[in-house]
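Hi C.,

You asked whether I'd gotten around to modeling the 648-residue construct. I have! Everything is below, sequence then structure, no commentary in between.
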Amino acid sequence: MFWLKPSNIAAALTASALLANAAQYNVTVGKGSQLKFDPETLDGVNPGDELLFTFFSKNHAVAQSTFDTPCQLKDNGIFSGFTPNDSPDVAAPTTFTITVNDTKPLWFYCPQSNGNHCQNGMVLSVNAPSSGNTFDAYKAKAQTAATPSTPPVGTLPAGGLRKLHIDVGFDGKLMFNPNNVTELVGTILEFSYNPANHSIVQSSFDQPCQPLASGFAAPFAPTQQTPSGVTFEVAVADDKPIWFYCAQTAKTHCQAGMVGSINAPADGNKTFAAFAALAATAPPSTIPPTTPLFGTLKVNGTIITQAVGTVLNTTALDPALLGSIPPPGASYPPNIGGMAGGDQPGDYGWAATITDEGVAILQALQYISNALVAVLLEGYVRLSDGDWKGAYPQTVTRSLGSLAAQALIHRKTYSDALAHYGKATVAACAYNFNGNGNDTAATTSSVDGWLQDVLTILTLSMGAKIDAVALAAGNASAASSPDTWMIPALASELGAEARMAAVINMMQSHFAAAAARDAMVPYQLAQSYIASKYVVPGSCGSTSTSTSTSTALPALVLKGKRAEAGRLVSVQVEVPSASTGDHWVAWIGPWGSIAYTPVSADDGTAAVPAGLSGHAWMVLTTAKDLKAREIEGAAVAGPEMVWTTQQW
């Protein structure tokens, strides 16, 4: 158990924000048979940037030293492991990637003692000073350094990502390339699918075309393009031989030689050649019924947790296809569930009937969900392959793809249930995100504005779900209210959406948790906010019913805010000219808490209740001391989300 000071947390968040502009530097090691890194010096490398090393002849490695001991591995230093390669011009299939953590100078060398590579000038500097401990001074020190260099051949990699790239169906042939490799423990094997339809399954030596009971397996991936964007990764856990094959029975791929090995003996009766010969006479290949197993399957960089069988529909996760939002009630490709980390349940536990309020809740939640799906998909497509590409690291963009898939799965809860009870689903609308007016072609103008829209709609969605769960639970004892099946369905979605909000908070360099508990928002007010702030008027189609669209309240205009000691203490609101009499601000906070403060008739100032934290919702009303269920009837503007607590 440990604690971080607020300043340390802020520093960590600042560092994560710097990843948004991460760059990759490519460094060749020994290309053209030269004892040289190319480039030898790298300047202006920032935290979050990556160094990608590719290896050429004959047997090189990347090792980190101090400035004073150039040819010796520093304590806990970075080391790639040695990478043999016969070619001076074609890179080895193994790469090594380092992520830079700060702007301090880094010193690297090749520790190959056969030929004393370091002492012969094979060194590299990152962010070296322009005077004093310069690159030239480091190189001069290396030329007189003690021999032999350390570490020796066989030392395991540390401090970076060592990856062996294996082509599946290389050059249209029934083969893995490379298919017989000696690799170090800790290396990631990255299998890249090529046409036409292959799989990757681990076997034992004695049964070459049958799955190993505790082995890895990746599904068939039909594809007609190279690269396909489909990869499968698995780590080398020990130095024991690894045997694998393609389970395609058309043309009997395994028996035709589409097999591979890692760390197979070079001689004896269990060599790679012996394995291939045994496979040639093996019975028909099989594959486990569920994939992937014991590895990481990705499509266009997005992790797929389940393929729903043994075949992966690779078109399902194309960002361009995701940009076209499936209509409410449509059947999603099975891989959307894999992308989301899970599919909708096979049995919701529906009751025989549903109340009118239950229908209104589902339609309101779908109305909100339509907007969430749209905003997430817009950002994902633009970050994946659009005008925002490169704004965030690929890992962040891939996570956003998973959030978009989760939003689709959640929306299916409402459309499935409404269809089951024969009720109308709510058509998707056209939306204006980030304040772009009522231009139907408008899109979000900035990543920061998009992040705020996502967080706002997520917070609304969570608040409305809390309200819906409370309503269903409150009516549980009434014989005429069979809506309690909603409770587990909606409560389980709340956890996923809270994690989504944490991701967005971190991307904004905010704390991952806005408050100890999220604010409850009456679902009618949440629906009204979406209608008022985001929906293009008249764009929602003819399938929306009168019960599924609330009258949109005017936006609550904030004319000013005042903070003291890191807290919001008062706001100044604009009272609509048509609304007369006394006014109050209803403050809806965490766990269904509601407080009222009067609005000054002179300047529209209202105090902020002292007990609020994180995000809260404001509604301008003509009455006070109302219950949450009664606020909509007295509301004249809002709701509006405000942040009540200043960051540390």
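If it helps when you're writing up: Residues 430 and 568 are 34 Å apart (CA to CA).

Thanks,
B.
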